[in-house]
Amino acid sequence: MKYRVLIAFPFLLTGCATTQQLGNPAATRQAITQVLATQTAAWNRGDVAGFMQGYWKNDSLVFIGKSGLTYGWQQTLDNYRRSYPDATAMGQLDFSNLKVQPLSPDAAHVIGRWHLARPSAGDLQGHFLLVFRRFNGQWVVVADHSS
Hints:
Helices cover 41% and strands 36% of the residues. By secondary structure, the chain is α+β, with helices and mostly antiparallel strands.
């Protein structure tokens, strides 16, 4: 019995260390889900700038889409405004099949599906992978790969 405890002890420590390395995964998931809900609400009221508040306001932000790579918060905002010039073009956004995976206390990724309901312009949909980082207590998207 003594040997079983000695053998299991390192695995127990590893499990505890992993939990400590991730911080509070449930709180991370909730905070990131809230960012996505806030973005969805902004988009659905035709507020692209409000939607962009969920992104890292930095030149190192990266967006990967059908047109390739875009670097920078302002350039990403400009691209959104060009692609979605008004509320009709924007439609109504819905995220589904979300899987929020904390990676550390200050990093996580999210995999999911997006759908734009646009009755007059035709619906759009696809999948995404978002990389989130926490800066000064605020979770923001630092990389977005949407297809």
